[in-house]
């Protein structure tokens, strides 16, 4: 047996998977994590099953049923559990459809910016030199552009749709992941297992994907969870100022914007979607916070 054949080639992936598993186990022991996960799962199930269970339409106008209050108030009636809006549309169903749109846009955006940012960050940190300098200056320039300015510039010139909204969010969010991935790569590329991989002839691509990439997940997982909530907020803001998904498709922003002028006599038009959005964001932020604390505890124990 040669010395090279005795080098543990999979030490980095195994170590990364072990750290990830310990973080998840520690996080799940927290009652906050369990409550937040169950709440978010319940909201997801509502968005999936609501349109099939509720006997109403999210887009059908019924002037005779406009401004109906929730069923627990005088004047409310089924099937409008949480009342109707100014055009007689079911508010609960519209809010659930808005939550589904916000969640899908948030998750897809974070997945794409995670892949793009980590790829750029790993490549930049591993190659170093002028490659690193150029890519990080591009990252700095992108980070200096406010999301709202970028959204108004791009979405204001064309009819907004889910694809262009996702593109704007990805374009504005990938630099954070690139920065984190680069910092981890700079620390990992000088370690023994990376040198061992080079000695036995592993290609740069294999080293980056097989050995360095698994080490990025622990410091970036809680960032991704929190970013889903952040992207949902931006989607609602875009809808509120008129550059989000266009009517008649319901979104949190358009529902809340349409109900602001009826706050005194039909407060539920604004409050219902606002509460649903707050519950969703609260559960995501709680999960992200628990993951961050668990990661710090695991890394402190490993140190």
What does this structure look like?
The protein is mainly α and 303 residues long. 70% of the residues lie in helices and 0% in strands. It contains 11 helices and no strands. The protein has helices at 11-28, 31-53, 91-127, 129-143, 147-155, 162-188, 192-199, 204-212, 217-240, 252-259, 268-302. Helix 4 crosses helix 6 (162-188).
Features:
mainly alpha; about 300 residues; about 70% helix; elongated; disordered N terminus
- What does the overall shape look like? elongated
Strand portion? under 5%
Number of helices: 11
**How many β strands by DSSP?**
0
Please provide the ordered H/E string of secondary-structure elements: HHHHHHHHHHH
- Helix fraction? over 70%
End-to-end separation in angstroms reads 33 Å
The profile of the biggest β sheet is:
none
Class per helix and strand makeup: mainly alpha
Gyration radius, to the nearest Å? 24 Å
**On the 0-100 scale, what is the average pLDDT?**
84
Q: Unreliable segments (pLDDT under 50, ≥5 consecutive)?
A: 1-12
Domain ABC transmembrane type-1: 99-288
Keywords: Cell membrane, Membrane, Peptide transport, Protein transport, Transmembrane, Transmembrane helix, Transport
InterPro entries: BP-dependent_transpt_permease, MetI-like, MetI-like_sf
Membrane topology: Multi-pass membrane protein
